[in-house]
Write a structure and sequence with these properties.
Elements lengths: L26 H7 L18 E12 L16 E13 L3 E14 L2 E6 L5 E5 L4 E16 L2 E12 L2 E13 L5 E14 L13 E17 L2 E14 L9 E2 L3 E15 L4 E12 L4 E13 L3 E12 L16 E2 L7 E14 L2 E13 L15 E13 L1
Antiparallel strand pairs: 1-2, 1-20, 2-3, 3-6, 4-5, 6-7, 7-8, 8-9, 9-10, 10-11, 11-13, 12-17, 13-14, 14-15, 15-16, 16-18, 18-19, 19-20
């Protein structure tokens, strides 16, 4: 599920996944198999689920405010977002399943409008003011067919808010080797987006625009031993159309963007510790000049049969887009002062507690994200509006036996 971080679509480097079907419900074994081994979601089980599962999530996302030294307007609040999610996975006979997901977001606050030059030669942001109040609803429906050595699924999705609507379709195929030790996955995706900026306190000069995205994913997972699995993936995405952020005064971007992503994931269960290590690496590159590296580590520790504790640590670093500058130069063909296109690094620390009672599973988690130019591996000028935020989530799942 996506979390919208601004009026311009922002892709998170995480993903939501459905656990591999496992006969043994011991939390340590579930910890080994409960994170993404292959994309897209719901593509991991070798047979249709025998019972239905349902889950709900509620998250609070709050960005740190802009400090007075970084803004011409003094201290300023940023985004607050409330996110509600619902998931249902159910069997349809012995060879089919259906999954339905709904996400509702309510957001308010302000975002950087543009960056101006201060008296000391640096940059300070002008905020949009508390002009953003929006609701977003996204839904997806996945139908999956299971055969002897794999499965194939089709996903339809829609996302709608005041100024933006996206319709998407995805097709994926998962195929196992004869010895069941290796799994191959291929996925295709497409989306068509319509943008009609709303007119608030931040002026816009765009009435209606469109954007298209096409993507391809190839993946392979290999059972290394009885307690370890490794996965590799490659994806390519072509975006075409209006890619500029209409809510930023100093923003004009190319109308095409090609993106490449390479991923690797490793899962290892340690019998003595009764725990599992999840280690992920992601490399991103595009033709705008943005490069990034993401390393994510999580330790799934069992605390008896009914509790598990999951501390996590993520590191992210990226290089700036070719046309980014702290104070944008409109005399250039392309320009942007959006901090998301600057050079920076970021650390995310997280902690999750999960407990199971009969058919119920309850979870609570928190994350702290901090970004700064000094955290990164790439040089560049520091953006004055780099992001830090907190996110808290509670969840409840039920299995219908």
């Amino acid at each position: 599920m996506r979390l919208q971080l601004s009026k311009l679509r922002h892709r998170n480097d995480g993903s939501s996944t459905e656990p591999i079907k496992c006969r043994d419900s011991h939390p340590s074994l579930l910890a080994l198999t409960s994170s993404a081994l292959l994309l897209p979601a719901y593509a991991y089980a070798d047979s249709a689920p025998d019972t239905a599962t349902m889950g709900v999530r509620y998250s609070e996302y709050k960005e740190d405010g802009i400090k007075a030294q970084d803004s011409f307007g003094g201290d300023s609040e940023r985004y607050d977002i409330d996110i509600s999610q619902f998931h249902l996975l159910a069997p349809l006979g012995s060879e089919w399943s259906v999954a339905f997901d709904v996400q509702q977001e309510t957001m308010s606050g302000a975002s950087p409008w543009f960056v101006g030059q201060s008296f000391d030669g640096g940059g300070k942001v002008i905020m949009s003011g508390a002009s953003i109040s929006d609701n977003r609803t996204s839904m997806s429906l996945t139908t999956r067919y299971y055969f002897d050595r794999g499965n194939v699924g089709v996903t339809l999705g829609n996302s709608d808010e005041d100024d933006y609507e996206s319709n998407s379709v995805g097709l994926d195929l998962t195929f196992n080797s004869a010895d069941q030790q290796r799994t191959y996955t291929v996925g295709l995706g497409a989306s068509n987006d319509d943008l009609e900026p709303t007119i608030g306190t931040t002026p816009v000069d765009v009435a209606k625009e469109e954007k298209e995205s096409r993507s391809l994913f190839l993946g392979m997972s290999q059972i290394v031993s009885r307690r370890a699995i490794i996965q590799f993936g490659l994806s390519y995405t072509l975006m075409d159309g209006y890619l500029t952020d209409p809510y930023k005064a100093s923003d004009r971007r190319p109308d095409e963007r090609q993106q490449w992503v390479a991923t690797s994931q490793y899962r290892h269960f340690f019998v003595g510790a009764d725990a599992a290590l999840h280690a992920d690496y992601r490399y991103f590159d595009d033709d705008w000049g943005v490069r990034s590296h993401t390393v994510n580590l999580a330790w799934h520790q069992s605390l008896g049969r009914n509790f598990s504790l999951i501390p996590s640590l993520r590191y992210y670093t990226q290089d700036a887009a070719d046309f980014y500058s702290v104070v944008a130069d409109p005399s250039q063909q392309y320009f942007a002062d959006d901090h998301r296109l600057s050079s920076f690094g970021a650390w995310t620390t997280g902690l999750k507690l999960q407990t199971r009672l009969d058919n119920w599973t309850f979870s609570i988690s928190g994350e702290r994200y901090r970004s700064d130019l000094s955290y990164g591996l790439y040089e560049g000028d520091e953006a004055p509006a780099l992001l830090s935020f907190n996110r808290y989530t509670i969840g409840l799942d039920y299995r219908f036996d």
